[in-house]
Every structure is written in C-alpha cells, then in structure tokens.
Amino acid sequence: MVVLDGTIVAIALPAAQAELGIDDSQRQWVVTAYAITFSALLLLGGRIADYWGRKRTFMVGMVGFGAASAWGGLAQSGTELIAARGLQGVFAALLAPSALAMLSVLFPRGRDRNVAFAVFGIIAGTGAAFGFLLGGALTQYADWRWCLLVNLFFVVAGLIGGKLLLVESKAEGDTRYDLVGTVLVALALASLVYGFALAEHGWLEVDTLGFLAAGAVLMVAFLWWQTRTSHPLLPLRVVRDRTRGGAFLLQSFVGVVMVGAMLFLTFHFQIVLGMSPLAAGFGNVAMTVVIMATAPISTKLFTTFGPRMVLTVGPLLAAAGLLFLSGITAEGSYWSEVLPGLVVMGLGFSLIFVPLQNLALSGVDPHDAGVASAFANASMHVGGSVAVAVFTALYTSSVADALAEGTGQMPAFANAYGDVFVVAAGVMVLGALTSYVLFRGPRATVVPVGGTEAVDAAH
Predict the structure, then answer these.
(1) Transmembrane region positions (predicted)?
(2) Could you report the per-residue pLDDT of 131-147, keeping only the tens digit for each?
(3) Residue 72: which of 53, 89, 48, 47 has the closest Cα?
(4) C-alpha–C-alpha distance, residues 295 and 310, integer Å
(5) How far apart are CA 409 and CA 337, in angstroms?
(6) Sign of the CA dihedral with 180 first, then 230, 246, and 109 last
(7) Binning pLDDT at 50, 70 and 90, where does residue 449 land?
(8) CATH-assigned architecture of domain 2-166+233-458
(9) Beta-carbon contacts of residue 209 (< 8 Å; ≥ 6 apart)
(10) b/e map of 310-328 (b: 16 or more CB within 10 Å)?
(11) How many CB atoms are located within 10 Å of the residue 306 CB?
(12) pTM, 2 dp
C-alpha cells in the first residue's frame, strides 16, 4: 500500500493540480509533504515498533493511514491535500518499519530469509505497477480523488489480515525513547528538504542557505547526541557496518531516481505527449514489468557473483537508461524515445532491488530490527524528497531559460525533463562507484547464508 501510494498519486497529480488550483511550485509539496514527514519520523516509528510491539504498531499505522487517505480524497484545496499527504507520511512511518522488522525477525537467516525478501521485493514491484495502472484508470474513468480513497479498501484488508495472521514481537531490555534525538533528526531533515525546495527561487538566497545550513548543523548535532546518550534513536552500530552502510547509501541514490526523476516522466507523458492518465499508467509499467520478469535471473546472479558485481552493474545500466531518456522531445514517440530507456532501467533496477533490502538488514540484532528497517526506508525517501526539491528547481530554471531564448512551451518542458534525467544518471553512476568501493571482501561476509536453494525458490 505504501509503494502503491507513491505511484498512484504521481499519476493523479496533474488532474488534482488543475481542479484545486495548485501552481507548479506548490505541486512538488503533494509529494514532498508525504516524504518529509515519513522520513523525519521513520526512526521514531522504528523504535516504537521495536519497543511497543511490531504488530500493534502496524495496526495503528493502518488505521491512521486510512484516515489520512480519506481526508486527502475529500480535500477541497491544495493546502488541505498537502496537509493530508503529510499526515499519511506520519502513519506510514509506523507502517513501513514495523512490516519490514517483522519480516527480518521472523526470517533471521538462511534460505527462508532469502526467499522472504525476494517475495517482499516482488510485492513492492507489483505495488508500483498496480499503482500506475490503478491510478490511471481511476483518474480517467472515475476521479483523481479515488486514487487516495482506494487506500481504504487496502486498509480494511490489512487490518483483517493483521488481526488474524500476524504474531506480536518486541525488543527486550532497554526500551527508553530518545526524544532529544527524535526532535533533532526531524528538524534536521525538515530543514534540509525545505531548503532544497526553496532553491527554485535561487541557490544563493538567504532563506535557502539558512535552511540548508540549519539542517546540516542539526544533523551533526543529532549524530553527536547519538554518541552521548545511553539509549540512542539510531545506534551507530547499525550504520557503521560497511555492507549495511553501503546499502543504506545506495538506497538513497535509488530514491533520487524512483521518487524524484520518475515523477517528471509522468509529467512528460500527460503534459507534453498528451497521454490520458490510463495510457500514462501503462507507459510507466514497462520498467516494473522488466524488473519483475528478470528478478529470478538477478537472484541467481547475486548468489553466484555476490553484491559487488551485481550492485555495480545495476546502477550503470540504470544510468544508461536515464541517459537515453534525456533525449526526449516534444514531438517524439513513446515507443522510440521512452520505452527502450525504461527497459534498460528495468534491467538495472532488477539487479539492485533483489539484494538491496536484504543487505541493508543483514546481521542486525533483533533489538534493532525496527530502527534498521526504518533507516533503510528513510534512506530511500530522504533521497527522493531531496531529489524532488532539487529537480523542481532545476526544471523551473531550465524552462525559464528556454522560454527566454524563444523556445516553445512544450519543447521547453521536454528539454527540462531531459536535464533532470541527465543529473539522475550521474547519481546512479555515483551509486555504482559506491557499490564497487564498499561491497568488498569474501563473498560469504556480504551474502546472507542461503545458497542456491534460494534461487530455486525464487524461480
């Protein structure tokens, strides 16, 4: 449901923008408001899951997410929609880490763990594809509001399934909350994302620099506090491990593309190419279909060659696909200018998604399962929320320059989207370098035990 919500709202956004009178500078906040509250509160949500109970936290998150979705679906203004999206992020910060922590605790090692995380990745991929298709269908044949209201059906299913099937688990020992750390990291992330959002008005403006500087200072203060307190919100042992740290960093780069850059491809489909919402949904699905179709092959490559090779080649393929997309034009065809790039990106992200969550949680103590799961989610969504802000600033500047030179409006939009894809490709190249440097050592130290049985099960 959380994955679906990201893609389904992207499809609905142009229609919501038109009906509620949201301008381009406000538009990003429908995405960013969700990402900023989600990211800022994820670590606390992970600790609540660990200490209060993962099943209980999951159930409360479901109820709250449903209520926020209903509010957003009935919103009468852009401000109201943005506020509802922010509230969705609050409860998603309870949902996401509790779900992933339960998975990590139930399957701590071996064949079952590899299979469980492979299934989790496939479900996430299905959620993204389903979101594009369902969002397009609902926007075109019903109303964009149903892209939020449809969550209520999933909430009911989640509550019934959770009540009947889930087993409670919680951490033992020290269960005190780090409230100081919570405030510091929430303010740090909020300041950084807001500072990047202000950058569309100028990188050297006082308010832009002020919020970015405040965010950096608060983040340093948070890390310092984590070394001083006896019950840290984020025990630094969780991120100091080279394999997990590399996985967290790569997660943030993936968020830049999947949350940030792909939003602009949706705009290109509907605004420049004039696709209907349903056609735009089908257009986005191509990459996800490739990811799902090649997942068994990616699993085999991972268990055979280890993460260094797979997670170096994967980002490079994704970068190649993004560079292909950077050549889009206002007069171009989806089949020649978009689809080949999405297929190559799908091959790359298949290599990334199969091992990434598993590596991010490898070797984590059960006491820290929730917070490690939260940090894995936070890494991706912080990357995505910062990317939306930065890419919006880049897009706005590029369009203004093109229009000043006499370029037509639609060609100016297409050129600006291309600029976004070029920068996103550079980020994925950086991800490949990160993997090559950090995922080193004997294969047994970085690949969770499971062997070829996991490959057979994935097939």
Answers:
(1) 28-45, 57-74, 86-108, 115-142, 148-167, 179-197, 209-227, 248-272, 278-297, 309-328, 334-354, 375-396, 416-439
(2) 778 888 888 888 999 99
(3) 89
(4) 12
(5) 19
(6) negative
(7) very low
(8) Up-down Bundle (1.20)
(9) 195, 203
(10) bbbbbbbbbbbbbbbbbeb
(11) 20
(12) 0.82
**Residue reference for tokens 């097939």:** 459
Q: Which amino acid is at 126?
A: T
Distance CA 3, CA 385 (A): 15
Q: Is-contact 243 359, C-beta < 8 A?
A: yes
Specify the amino acid at residue 398. Answer: S
Cα separation, 84 vs 67, whole angstroms: 9
Structure token pair of residue 87? 């509230």
Alpha-helical regions (H) of 21-141: 24-52, 54-73, 78-106, 110-141
Tens of pLDDT, residues 54-103:
999 999 999 999 999 999 999 999 999 999 999 999 999 999 889 888 88
Closest Cα to residue 10, out of 144, 151, 141?
144
Q: Which tokens is 305 given?
A: 């060659």
Tell me the domain boundaries of the chain: 2-166+233-458, 182-232
Q: Residue 2: which of 392, 354, 380, 279 has the closest Cα?
A: 380
Tokens 């940030």 sit on residue: 260
CA distance linking residue 360 with residue 241, whole number of Å: 10
Q: CA–CA distance from 93 to each of 2, 5, 36, 55, 251 (Å)?
A: 10, 14, 10, 14, 17
| Contacts by 393-401, CB closer than 8 A, 24 or more apart | 393/196, 393/197, 393/199, 393/200, 393/203, 394/419, 394/420, 394/423, 395/264, 395/419, 395/420, 396/24, 396/25, 396/200, 397/200
Q: In angstroms, how far is the first alpha carbon of the chain from the final one?
A: 25
Q: How far apart are CA 391 and CA 199, in angstroms?
A: 10
Query: Is the CB of residue 201 less than 8 Å from the CB of residue 256?
Result: no
The residue among 424, 417, 384 whose CA lies nearest residue 2 is 384
